[in-house]
Each structure stands twice: as C-alpha cells, then as structure tokens.
Specification:
three-stranded antiparallel beta sheet; homodimer; globular; alpha/beta
C-alpha cells in the first residue's frame, strides 16, 4: 500500500503477503467456527478436524507424519522449543552444542543464553560462499555433543547447506539434529526422513501463510522439555489455546506450496538470474554474496563497494523498490550482519549489502524496474562517497 | 457453522468470534502492508506505525502507557513471560511465589515447573464463592517472597478478586504483583495504576480479537528475563517477527472494548441474570458456582447434582446449544476442574458443572432457548442416573 501500485516489493524474506486463497480459508474461522479444539460440542469437533487437517498438510510438505508436527507461534518459537527443549532433556548425556556460523538470531541467541547455563557451544565456520563443511562439523563432535543445529538454507545469502550429509553423520553418532528450514521450506523440496532430521522448524509467513504461526517437526521418539507450560496443548510442548484461523491458514499455505512450489521456484529462479546477471554484468564494484548455484530460487544478494546498504534501501524505497540490507531481525542494530562477517567480509564490505528476496508474484517488469533503478541509486550514492574515485 | 443458524453459542470463555470490525482492519495487513516493522523502507515504516497504534490502544484499555505493553502469542505466553521472567530475575532476592487456588493452568503449571527448579510455591485457598482473602495472602508473605500472582477474575466461575487490596499490600512490601486479567479485560474496567499491578496478562480473543495474540503489561522499571530468545523484538522479551495483522486486530479489539464495554456488560449482565434466575428458580438440585454479585457480567456457572457435565454438554450440543463444563484447557482430562475443587466441591459435585459464557451478541431469544432446553436435558440424564431418585 506504499506509493500506490508502483511499489515493487522484494523484501519477502522479512515479511510476505498472504496468498488470497489462504486468507479465504481462514475467514470462516474468524466468523463462525469459533470452537476451541478442546471443547466437547459440535464446534469443538469442527475445530479439532480443522486442526488435524492442517497438521496433515504441514507434515506432507516435509515428508513427515502428522503426529510428528506441533504448531507454534512462529519460527523463533519453533527454534527455541527445539534447541532449549532438546538440550534440557539431554543434559545428563552431555552439554555440547554445535551450530553453523550463519544461523538465524533465534538459534544464535538461544545458544548464547544456554552458555550462561553451562552449555558449551561450538560455532563451525562457513566458506566464502556461506557453505558449512559437514566434515568440519564431524571434527568438532565430542562425547559431550548432544545437538547439532544447522539451517537448511540461509535467507540472507541464499546458500543451501549439505544437511543430508550432516544428518547422516549425526544419526550415526546418535546426536540430535535440528534444522531451521524457515527460508527453505516451500522453496526447495525437503524430506525429513531422507535427510535424517530429528527436529525441523518452519514458519507460515515464509510460505505465504499468515504471520504468528509456525510449526516444529519432532521425529517420533524424540523427547523435548517444554519451554512454556499451561493447558498442555500440542502434546504438552506448546500450551495455549490453538490459533485455529492461523493454523488453518498455515495448513492451506503448505498444501499450496506442495502443489505449486516447483513452478513457483522455476519462475523465481529465472527472475533471480536476471537480477544477478543484470547487476554483476552492468554495475561496477558489485559482487554476489552466497553460493552461485547452491542457492535458494528467491534470493538475489549482493554487496556494493564504497556505499552503505542502508542508504541503498532508503533511496530504492523513494523509487518504489522495497528491499533489505540483510536479516530484518538485525536491521535495527548498526552492527553488520553476522552472516556476512561469517563469509569473510570486512565490516565496511558487509555494510554495503543488498538483499532482493522475491515472491511468487514478482514479474519480469518489476525486475526491469529494479535493474533500471539500482544503477541510478548506486551512482548517486557513490558520487557522495568520500571513499569512491571514478576510474 | 454448526447446524446452520440455530446454534446458540455460549462457550465464549473457550473461544470467541472475532468482531467483524476487527477482521476488517486486519485484512489489509494480509494483502498489502506486509512490511516487517524492522524494515527500513516505506512498508516497514507503515508496519511500525500500525504496531505503535495497536500498542496505544491496548495500553489505553488498562490505564497503562504504550511503552509498558509487549505483544505475545496469547495469554499462556503472557503468563509464562510474567512469572518465569520475574522470578528468574528476582531469584537472588528470594525464591517464594504466592498464587491463589483458582489460577489458570498456565499459572498453576508454570509454578509447578518452577518448583522443580527450587522455587517454593504457596497456594492460597479461596472460600466457597471462589474469593481469595487478601489478608490471607499477606499472612503467607515471607522475606523470601518475590512474586504474588492472582487473577483479576475467574473465567470458569466468574468470581472477581479483590486485586486492588492485594496490589496495595504487595507494593507496600516491595513484592511483584502479577495479574492474569484474561477473563476480566474488556468485561469490567481495569486500571493497573490504581490497582498497583506490576504485570498484567491479557488475551486478544477474549476481547473478540483474533486468536494467537496477547499482551503483557510490564510496569515501567520492572525487569524480566526473557523466556525465548532471538531477534530481540518487543524490548528483547518476545523475539520473533511481529504478527502484524494479529496485533492490529488486537489493537482494534481493545479500542472497541474501551468504547463499548459498559453497554455490552450491561446487556450481558441482564441475560446472565435471566439464566441464573431461570436455572436456580426452575430446576431442582441446581446450584450457582462462584460469587453471587462479585461476578463477571458474562459468566453463568452452575452445578447439577446426580449428572455429569460432559453428558450435559453433549446433549445440549444436540439441541443446538454449545456450552462448556469448565475451562477448555482441562476439558480433555477426566480430572474435575481444580477451580471447582478449590471452592470446596466434592469430585462428584464438580463433575456436574455447566458453564454458560456469554458474548456481546447473545440475545434474549437465545437465553430462552437455553432455558427451555436445559431442563429437558437434565431430566433425561437424571432419569438414566442410578444415583437419582425423584422426590
């Protein structure tokens, strides 16, 4: 709703529109079927059915069984329940956690918090493309290691991790494996069984579902300690009356993702390649961040020398292009993104980053508009930069 | 959507319809204004404004300042953050918590969980009307007491507690005072300043707002330790991308409650009295549970001898009346409600309970239908009961 119709929204990793078909299935749950799934009457029965159907749709997207899915209030909660829940339960076995250097803040800060409680955390570095080496993770395993957490793909630089190798290694050594699949789910196929995943977090909004809903896959037989307590909903792991309209919306979003992901991904990938070619081919001192091919179909991420990402975002916004300079979660701080530092960028390099995250509705015309706007913005900002000298 | 138009829904304490005016303000946030409040571009600015406006509306309902409100995923999370956050922060000062015997499961079970971590919990009994005695709470205070948690009113039996007296006593002794106001907010006026409240939980759905959203009032100067960690949203106390559509909906629900509560309450109170008079006046072996006058305007709660509440609910549902036999959170267990046990009922008495919780749309005709249906149901069930002898 910014500047009328002309806005090109390419900040979908920060927040996405809800698919109209999702909103449609949610609406009746605001109006009529208000039953609490715990209620004994007919509306309660209806609510239970809706909850069960949504659970099946989420499970189907990732190759899980419905009883292995619990609903949460979003990705951050899923990551907290998975990590806190697992290590509190396993602390008699050991106190060592391994994570990659490019995890989301909800993984990073949860592990920091757990360090204060006596857990040890090893952060395994990534290469310049943002890839973590599964062998390197294996090297860090000790007899105290109880949990490995590595994201499926990074929403900031698009790099897809070799989760299958990490999963196989973890399973062999009887170490729990948690995967933050928030950026990957609905963009690339995920199979929790083939990947040997024990715990997997997904978010509804990243699948064009409503905000404030997420899910956690918990492999049968894996026990967690709850983070919050109350009425014992969601197998005691997520107390609180179920957000039925949100959950139904997330179910529909997963159903649509399963059916349409392949086409949507192909289309976004084509646009992503045009963005990457257009920027790298025509703009001086521009660089891709993240892996060239092991990359989410919707993520085009760059850095530009001599200018600040924040200024790029503001100037682009004036031209009707909405983008981001990294994770929305760190946008408020002046610190450069830990992901960009992890791939070896210096602070001043990391500050010049631009993230264009596509949605399934973005068009060729929008890409053309971005490719026409971006050079104007970058040139103007460089002209103001004391560091930049025209060559 | 159950049995078409004829369903009379009186299970609003378990889950309420969302006001159409609330849904209306939420819809644009599904479609367009998808910005993340942390984003720098125009949509981000819009999202920040919406978040700020909603915070003001919530604050205004309870006499707080906007900076004293954080948004959560619902009542259970608000209660968890308040209690866990407070005692973890205060544990150097002491380890003693006092709660009333009629608290919600999210308070009861959180305190039980904290007992395992070394905290001591005193549960103060209530009288036969469900009233807690503030003097009795004062008697239990020790030099180790760091938190008192007492609900504003009970959603199961309607009894309104003397929070103002408890608040004054707690403030005088420098003990934090948490109030679960989920059942009371929007039904009766609340003023956190006059009541000397430090922490107050409210839920959106109980105000005819969407499910999956809640808020916690945290008095300026009161510090909490977060339960979940991540991107640091909501002053670091509730990480995770904000559920903007839900929050905007809750803001609108609070605004409507502030303007319309008085009229709505008067109307519901009249219907509640008709229900109470109709049941107690015309049905043998029926009793009111909860206080006769210190009672929420929307709660008519009873018990019937010789029959099971569960059977009443099922039979009423067949006649198009949806009600509850207690808290939805304990509906799944076979245990009788701890609230009914706390007011001195024997197990078999507690099992015969019926809760009719009204909404602002319930009508006189609906009350008439309930008063016509209930005797049929109760008589039929009693005829089947081996315990019952016609007198």
């Amino acid at each position: 709703m910014v500047n009328g119709l002309t806005t090109v929204y390419m900040d979908n990793a920060s927040g996405a529109s809800v698919d109209k078909r999702v909103v449609e299935v949610m609406l009746p749950y605001f109006d009529f079927s208000v039953g609490n799934p715990a209620s004994l009457h007919e509306s309660g029965v209806e609510a239970r059915k809706a909850l069960g159907a949504a659970r099946e749709s989420v499970a189907a997207l990732i190759g899980a069984e419905d009883k292995e899915i619990i609903f949460t209030s979003g990705a951050t909660e899923s990551n907290n329940i998975a990590i806190r829940g697992a290590v509190q339960r396993k602390k008699k076995k050991g106190n060592h956690i391994i994570i990659s250097a490019v995890e989301h803040m909800s993984v990073v800060n949860t592990c920091k918090d757990l360090q204060r409680e006596g857990f040890e955390v090893t952060t395994v570095p990534v290469d310049r493309d943002g890839l973590v080496d599964s062998g390197r993770i294996a090297d860090e395993v000790t007899d105290q290691t109880i949990l490995i957490s590595c994201m499926y793909a990074n929403g900031e630089i698009g790099t897809i991790q070799p989760v299958r190798y990490i999963g196989a290694m973890a399973r062999e050594r009887d170490i729990l494996f948690h995967v933050d699949a928030v950026a990957a789910a609905g963009k690339i196929p995920i199979d929790v069984v083939q990947d040997n995943i024990d715990l997997l977090s997904i978010s509804s909004n990243d699948l064009y579902g409503p905000k404030g809903v997420g899910a956690l896959y918990i492999r049968s037989g894996v026990a967690l300690r709850p983070v919050m307590t109350g009425g014992g909903q969601e197998r005691g792991l997520r107390s609180g009356s179920e957000n039925i309209s949100g959950i139904v919306g997330m179910g529909k979003a997963c159903e649509l993702a399963k059916d349409e992901m392949e086409n949507d991904a192909r289309q976004m990938e084509a646009l992503r390649e045009k963005l990457i070619d257009g920027v790298l081919g025509n703009m001086k001192h521009s660089y891709l961040t993240g892996h060239m091919t092991k990359r989410l179909p919707n993520i085009a991420s760059f850095r530009f020398s001599f200018i600040e990402g924040e200024s790029i975002i503001m100037s682009l916004s004036d031209l009707g292009v909405e983008a981001s300079t990294g994770s929305a979660c760190s946008a408020k701080t002046l610190e450069p993104s830990h992901v960009l530092i992890a791939i070896g960028l210096r602070h001043e390099e990391a500050h010049g980053s631009l993230l264009l995250s596509l949605n399934k509705w973005n068009t060729q015309a929008e890409v053309d508009h971005v490719l026409a706007s971006l050079p104007l913005v970058v040139e103007r900002l460089r002209a103001l930069s004391p560091l930049y000298q025209e060559d």
